[in-house]
Amino acid sequence: MNSNIPFLNASIAQALDYTAPILFAALGGVMSENAGVVNIALEGMMRFAAFFGVWGSFVSGNAWVGLLWGVGIGIVLGALHAYITVKWAGDQIISGVAINVMAMGMITYLLESVFKTTGYSPPVAYFGAPASKIHLAFLKGIPILGAFAELTILIWFALILVVVLHFVLYHTVLGLRIRAVGENPHAAETLGVNVFKIKWFAVISGSVLAAFGGLALSLGTLSSFTNSMAMGKGFIGLAAMIFGKWTPFGALGAILIFAGAQVLQLFMQGTATGFAKLIPLGFYLSLPYMLTIGALIGVVGKAVGPASDGVPYKKES
Predict the structure, then answer these.
(1) How far apart are CA 16 and CA 194, in angstroms?
(2) pLDDT digits (tens, 9 = 90+) for 114-151
């Protein structure tokens, strides 16, 4: 059993690394949709931030500068989405799709223009380097907890953010206003809440969180940008948000189901004996997706979001 502890801890650490980008995207959706604005552009925002983060790190040689570039593009895209959907009450789905399409074409163009390639960028300074990780040596060798011994700062930030966002949404006046705007903006307006400011804030802050998801991919998991980023993780984050009933801890729980399946398939591959060795590799690889689909089937029709989610708001005269 003791010989399997390092493998178990490494598998869990890998799952946490996989969790962080999706969790950031899901939390971005939680923030935006609790204020009544659907944001299916999380995927495109992740892609933009992943590229700009690498670009900033490449130019400066500093991962923190890359992070600022990624956050900056997240703010710009969030403001664009809010301008269309909040100021002009535009269709939120169309706006999100437009940003996703723009991300595919524009980033491919920028990748070729900046790095002279359409495949991937050169390696840059990133947070996943051994020297940049947060080292908790006293946890090494402890089952499960040992997985937290050497994680990147972005993984820790994603996990801490779940607690912070839960506190903000359910234990502060700001959170009460955000949820009130998402449920009934006209009633919130009669109570003196500036609905437009709340929506702008929620959309932009949600976009920044999605940007962190992209940064967790290119400057956390990898040290470069590949043209296949974000590989659907933004949409998985949206699914996790719905499965988690638009709450931070619910979204985390949903993502951990998928991540737990990742750990399980890795552990089963590494420890398979006897008949288990005869099972095709494809079964293990598909196991996380099958379990996730099974979990989502159980909540279809039962998950109910904020009452005004996706409904354009127009100030009453």
Answers:
(1) 38
(2) 999 888 999 999 999 988 899 998 998 888 899 999 99
